[in-house]
């Protein structure tokens, strides 16, 4: 049985908002939700520093992935997803957060400084509670999806969640579009699978099902049983798995109801952070709509496939993430999270 299913970190449903408590208690409540955000390879590359009544969101670069993410682009996006999740939790309890992005040029690890803002309207809090309820239910689902089309209003709702942060979502729903992008993903898989340095980096984040690691990707999240979970990291590290993964990812992409590309106006840390905030809102909207999601980011992790993706879709901005969406055919369980005390520090 997957231990993460009983992980107390995921059991946030019964938490009570400490509205009249000191700032530390309120920040801790919000961080309990923020850490449930998705991150590349479930690296959880964030830290939170309490500064009086304010909170700093810090990039934890000890959790960087220099081969697949040499500029820390996906690391910053992951931290933005934690920030976006925190914003939803705050609004659901009636308060807005004032966010200053990248507040200090000389401290680039400080991605945001956050303070409690004004009360939100009852209607806004009610709207946020719908997404708030989805926070513990959102899990990356690496299984095949039902290809039944997603309705136009649902696609518009997903786009609207991202647009509030200046991020475009381009949906690919017809077979020709999906096939072109699936071929880019497959080509990237074949390139990455041939690279020993990438295989080593990936294998460091793959864990067996009986391991007590609080980060990374356990084998059950990939649909692997006990025996396969034992040999999975060894195979990932030592063999060229590119052709097999290319075939599987191509099949997953084609069978999905939609592929979604998140596009920012430019490539800057501030816009990477905005992409992460948009991602949190989009994924929680998808969860609330009964949709599953997973990433196919290989096509944006390599320069040439990323340029090709931008060219094929005639994008004016920079593609940051590639998702697949659809009704789930199999449920996905939670992946582990680090203890809250491991990610909070006080100056």
What key phrases describe this protein's structure?
single chain, 347 residues, alpha+beta, five-stranded antiparallel sheet, 12 strands, globular
Distance between the termini: 39 Å
Q: Which regions contain 5 or more consecutive residues with pLDDT less than 50?
A: 1-5
Total helical elements? 11
Helix content: 40-55%
Q: Would you tell me the overall average pLDDT?
A: 94
Helix-and-strand structural type = alpha+beta
Output the strand order for the largest sheet: 3-4-2-1-12
What is the CA-based Rg, rounded?
19 Å
Largest sheet: 5 strands, mixed
Overall geometry: globular
- Strand composition percent: 15-25%
Number of strands: 12
Query: What is the H/E order?
Result: HEEHEEHEHEHHEEHHEHEHHEE
Brief synopsis:
The protein is an alpha+beta fold and 347 residues long. Helices cover 41% and strands 19% of the residues. The relative contact order is 0.19.
């Amino acid at each position: 049985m997957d231990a993460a299913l009983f992980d107390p970190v995921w059991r946030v449903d019964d938490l009570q908002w400490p509205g009249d408590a000191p700032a530390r208690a309120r920040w801790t409540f919000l961080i309990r939700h923020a850490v449930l955000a998705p991150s590349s390879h479930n690296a959880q590359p964030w830290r939170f520093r309490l500064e009086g009544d304010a909170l700093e969101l810090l990039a934890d670069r000890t959790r960087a992935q220099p081969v697949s993410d040499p500029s820390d682009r996906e690391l910053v996006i992951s931290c933005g997803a934690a920030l976006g999740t925190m914003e939803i939790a705050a609004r659901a309890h009636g308060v807005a957060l004032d966010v200053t992005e990248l507040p200090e040029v000389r401290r680039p690890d400080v991605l945001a400084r956050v303070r409690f803002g004004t009360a939100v309207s009852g209607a806004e809090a009610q709207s946020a509670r719908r997404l708030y309820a989805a926070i513990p239910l959102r899990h990356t689902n690496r299984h095949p999806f039902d290809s039944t089309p997603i309705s136009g209003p649902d696609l518009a709702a997903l786009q609207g969640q991202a647009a509030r942060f200046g991020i475009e979502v381009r949906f690919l729903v017809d077979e020709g579009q999906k096939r072109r992008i699936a071929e880019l993903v497959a080509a990237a898989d074949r390139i990455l699978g041939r690279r020993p340095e990438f295989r080593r980096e990936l294998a460091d984040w793959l864990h067996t099902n009986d391991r007590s690691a609080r980060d990374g990707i356990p084998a059950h999240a990939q649909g692997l049983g006990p025996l396969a979970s034992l040999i999975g990291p060894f195979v990932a590290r030592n063999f060229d798995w590119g052709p097999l993964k290319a075939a599987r990812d191509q099949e997953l992409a084609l069978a999905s109801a939609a592929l979604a590309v998140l596009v920012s106006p430019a490539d800057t840390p501030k816009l990477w952070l905005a992409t992460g905030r948009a991602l949190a809102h989009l994924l929680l909207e998808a969860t609330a709509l009964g949709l599953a999601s997973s990433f196919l980011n290989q096509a944006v992790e390599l320069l040439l496939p990323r340029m090709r993706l931008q060219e094929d879709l005639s994008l004016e901005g920079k593609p940051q993430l590639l998702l697949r969406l659809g009704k789930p055919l199999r449920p996905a369980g939670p992946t582990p999270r680090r203890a809250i005390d491991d990610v909070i520090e006080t100056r």
